[in-house]
What does this fold into?
Amino acid sequence: MFEQWVHSQVALGLGQAAVVCALALAVAWLGHLRKLQLGRETAVALLRGLLQMLAIGLVLVWLLKGAALWSVPALAAMCAAAAWMAHRKVHSVPHAYWLCLRAIGTGSAVVIVAMVLAHVIPYKATALVPLGSMIIANSMNTCSQVLERYSSDLKLNAGRVEAALALGASASQAALPYAKNSTTAALIPSLNSLRSLGIVWIPGFAAGMLLSGSDPVYTAIYQFIVIAMIYAASGLTALVAAAGYEGAAFKEERLVAQP
Amino acid sequence: MQATQTNESARGDGAMADRKPLLLAEGVRREAGGRVIVREASFSLAAGEVVAITGPSGAGKSSLLRLLNRLDAPSAGRVLLAGTDTGALDVHELRWRVGMVMQQANLFPGTVAQNVSYGPGLRGVVLNADEVEELLRTVGLAGYARRDVAALSGGEAQRVSLARTLANRPQVLLLDEPTSALDEAAKRVVEEALRAAMAQVAGACLIVTHDEAQAGRLAQRTLLMQGGSLGDPHV
It folds into this structure.
């Protein structure tokens, strides 16, 4: 209905954002009535989200018109921000930020570079930035989940871990059940995405491709490729994060972490 | 503050202390979080000897024990096993040779047999059913091999933990308050298992307990630890 009164696309977007914000605030108000006190947090989160996306939109305007090479620092900055958000789960671990940066950076970079070299991701900013950001965001979630689960499992099972060490197990052997649990659990969302692709959900990315006139069958295949890339990056991130945490939690085959 | 007392009623004789030490701690110190937990502890264990360390809670008894198999790193001093500095030994080999039973059983999920076989399995040694059964018989749990550890009582679990440590055939057996989490009846049963286990260990046993009566029942010598210090450094 906005199109009738608003001709600028930006103004249209802001009007639509106002409608959805009103809806979210109404939900928060319902929460307030049930004494859930969601109002302030919701309002702050909505405002913050809108401002962040506006800023990103402005950056994208400049970036998408520029050379593909500018995508590299942009994606690196996204990795740095993702590592900052993920490291808060294990801030007590020494060098947690670098641990997260290494995991997210490795998982994302290996997949993005490999896919660009294989011409699966076109070497242009309009493809690199959106696809790269999806990969990095999912790697960040995986990294957080691995570290949170691994650290809490080691804390809960410190006695068993030390019992294994006292029997002559290496740190990797003693921690294996917990490394396995944390990586498996963290990869469940990515695996579920792969399994349910086309049945339970069709990724939003498909809509853009269809709107831009891509062949529907190619669009469907490309959705699978995107989700598979996300899974590969998440898997690699999980492995690097688990190995990194193990390195921080044990020293000379002693459990030193107090997560 | 004196640290040593000979328990006449316990097995063995005083001559054991004169033998060449199997385990020798020299000025072992542990600091953590800016606090001294163990102060220059020195003592020796001869082959065939059973020694108890007693003292109040927080005295540093368990912390001292953890330095002997390098579950914690000493800040100073050294520990010799059969004349070799344990710092120079491969840590896995050290822990196979210096076995430890902890206050809690800390069994791994699975069956009793899987737990007992764990240590040898790390070295690629597969225990057969008879060997597992023999170890379980030593701790009074014959016929328990296929039971799920989740179904065991506290005393049974602790005895499985003991059998699991014995499976590595350690030269030195460290026992860290092995009965403190048990009721009186279970404690007596575990003590019986400990006696049988001690008889099996070719080397020496060091038991940490806050129960002086238990120390008297199980050990030939008792060392007293207070405020992180073992009184006599030349025991």
The radius of gyration of chain B is 17 Å. The interface with chain A takes residues 69-73, 91-93, 95-96, 99-100, 102, 104, 106-108, 118-119, 122-123, 161, 164-165, 168 of chain B (CB under 8 Å). Residues 211 and 233 of chain B are 22 Å apart (CA to CA).
